[in-house]
Design brief:
Elements lengths: L10 H11 L10 H11 L3 H12 L16 H15 L2 E4 L2 E4 L9 E8 L2 E8 L2 E8 L4 E5 L2 E5 L4 E5 L1
Parallel strand pairs: 2-6
Antiparallel strand pairs: 1-2, 3-4, 4-5, 5-8, 6-7
């Protein structure tokens, strides 16, 4: 719930619960690691979030669950994307507004991805110094919050915010 209903809990409550449960959790569920990674990122522990990302991304390659011969773990494939986008890139929807507030691992120079939001195809490029969001498809202006700044993204437009 701390991940799914993130806005309903204070950072202190999230931190206390994360610190209590994280060392006690076995992560036997393929959904567990992604939730913990996203929460770790939100709490500012990008090192731990990145470690979880690597673990999930390699889960089938390393056969960590001992059953890869039965097929890939689709939940972990989706979890990998969620850790990257919702966790490290900090993409959230709050009050109908798209937020981007990235927390990249130390050794990353940047990341980029595309996502759909309200029938708009957005390209997001995050580097060490800025976040650039472009509307590749869409017909209506879009209100966004990028790194704490309110921005209006026009169809076909691009906005840049210094980090």
């Amino acid at each position: 719930l701390l991940y799914l209903l993130s806005d309903e809990f204070s950072q202190d409550v999230k931190r206390a619960n994360f610190e209590y449960y994280e060392p006690r959790t076995t992560h036997k569920s393929s959904l567990s690691i992604a939730s913990y990674a996203i929460l770790a990122s939100e709490l500012g522990d990008t090192g731990k979030a990145y470690g979880y990302l690597r673990r999930v991304a390699n889960s089938d390659l390393e056969n960590i669950r001992g059953n890869t011969e039965l097929g890939v773990h689709a939940a972990e494939l989706g979890g990998t994307w969620q850790i990257a986008v919702r966790g490290l890139a900090g993409v959230r929807v709050r009050g109908g507004v798209l937020f981007v507030d990235s927390r990249l691992p130390e050794d990353w120079q940047g990341m980029s991805f595309r996502t759909w939001f309200r029938d708009n195809l957005l390209a997001v490029v995050i580097s060490e110094g800025e976040v650039v969001v472009s509307m590749e498809q869409g017909r209506d202006a879009l209100e966004m919050n990028i790194c704490g700044q309110r921005e209006t993204l026009e169809p076909g437009g691009t906005t840049r915010v210094r980090r």
